[in-house]
Amino acid sequence: MSVSVQKIVEPAVLGEGPHWDDKQQALYFVDINSKSINKYVPATGVHTKTLLDGRVGFIVPVDGTNDQFVVGVERKFLIIQWDGENNSKVKIVKELGEVDQDVPTTRINDGKADPKGRLYAGTMGHEEPPGNFLMEKGSLYRLDRRGIVKMCSSISISNGLAWDLREKAMYYNDSPECKIRRYDFDVDTGDISNLKYIFDFKKNDIEGFPDGMTIDTDGNLWVAIFDGSCVLKIDPKAGSVLQKIPIPAKQVTSVTFGGPNLDVLFVTTASMNIKEEQKPPCGATFMVLGLGVKGHPNVNFKLP
After folding, report:
1. What does the alpha-carbon distance between residue 298 and residue 115 come to, in Å, rounded to a whole number?
2. 279 phi-psi bin (left φ>0, alpha ψ -120 to 50, beta other)
3. Record-annotated residues binding a divalent metal cation (predicted)?
4. Do residues 113 and 71 touch, judged by C-beta distance below 8 A?
5. Residue 17: which pLDDT band, with cuts at 50, 70 and 90?
6. How many whole angstroms separate alpha carbon 239 and alpha carbon 257?
7. What is the mean pLDDT of residues 108-117?
8. Is residue 98 exposed (0-12), middle (13-18) or buried (19+ Cβ within 10 Å)?
9. Residue 261 is assigned to a ligand binding site
10. Do 88 and 50 form a contact (C-beta atoms < 8 A)?
11. What amino acid positions are annotated as catalytic residues?
12. 191 is in an annotated binding site
């Protein structure tokens, strides 16, 4: 089967944070700059969305519920209730905490639940105009039963979380570094240690920046390349590119596996006019078929 890339959702300004809910067979994602949370059901082709009161960096379902989600809005972690319908009202169920209170110009940019359901989410520096960031103002945080713990500081743009339990590893991107980080990962505590860089984009002459990423069941990383119009499949052990998937949008932001067999790669993109106009289909959400690999089920957030 040949690889095909299909547009499934009309363009967003800054699509990000795709999460496949296996129970509902639905894709959730955000449009950060438009302050919207989104739901797409492939079986019906129905796309719904609604607005929040601030820029939203991620949406992850709460485990054991059908209508509750943890979201990162500006610098706060919130539990919200949303019925998934278009333009329906969102109820704030609980505030879980606020990060970067000493740096009030940052915002939450990306977040995921780790294999145990703990929340990892990071922040990034103020951006004005688009593409011009305050560097090293963000951090990476973990939220679990012990509260909010700062894992890394001096982060510029927090992105790209993925875990490999067989290798006891966590992979992470601080996008402007143009490198992929690897940490030893303690699955019991959620602690990380022993930072190593396992891939350097500049040394491999790759244009663009590593953004969101996911991992397949073979242990290979799939990395969205912002300003690179592609997704790269990277072997983290060998530090080599195995495959390049061209995407018809310059600003590729994130990826996740989904579908009934977890063999569809969903790809979010952006349409921010940085240096040049980003015309449709830039900003659309795509699905990639025929890759011949499978991902792991996305993990929902488990309330502390």
Report:
1. 8
2. beta
3. 16, 159, 211
4. no
5. very high
6. 22
7. 97
8. middle
9. no
10. yes
11. 211
12. no
